[in-house]
Write a structure and sequence with these properties.
Length: 170
């Protein structure tokens, strides 16, 4: 892989992307509803391609990750738009928070109230990715560390990890 020129290496992935775009123009054989399309398949295939590219990146850079989800999250945070892919989903954190100890859950809810959303009084009102908390901010938060909220718990709510969970593991 190291001997392949960069433009040739990415040629395969560019071709796959073109194939995915063409799938968008294909009509399903049976129209089960008026909105029938191949969009779900496109999303799943795009997720698989991003995962494959993340795998090649990790191997080339000799980077090891605790999970494939962490690898995809880090790949996207590094090579896509970091200001987006370094975010944690506020909603996902709260949905998964039942697994935390009661004190950790209370601290997480308090921290999310301070760090999320345009309306701090109503942190459940997340309007865009800009309203979600930053992963680094959460991992450095002293209250979360003191309550024992694991970094892995936070990492599993990074956008890239969610993408992996929904499009690679579903």
């Amino acid at each position: 892989m190291a001997s392949v020129p960069k433009d040739q290496f990415f040629l395969y992935f560019r071709q796959r992307l073109e194939n995915l775009k063409q799938l968008g123009g294909v009509q399903p054989a049976q129209r089960l509803n008026p909105a029938a399309s191949f969009e779900p398949e496109q999303n799943i295939l795009a997720g698989a391609e991003i995962d494959a590219l993340a795998g090649y990146w990790a191997a080339h850079e000799k980077r090891c990750f605790k999970s494939s989800a962490c690898r995809m999250a880090e790949f996207l945070a590094t090579h896509a738009r970091p200001e987006i892919w370094n975010r944690c989903s506020h909603t996902d954190l709260l949905e998964r928070a039942a697994s935390l100890a009661p004190e950790a859950l209370q601290r997480l809810q308090a921290v999310l109230t301070q760090t999320s959303g345009p309306d701090k009084a109503m942190p459940e009102r997340i309007l865009s990715w800009q309203d979600d908390p930053d992963f680094a901010t959460l991992t450095r938060n002293a209250a979360l560390q003191a309550a024992g909220v694991p970094e892995k718990f936070l990492a599993n709510s990074r956008y890239g990890a969610i993408l992996y969970r929904h499009y690679r593991c579903a």
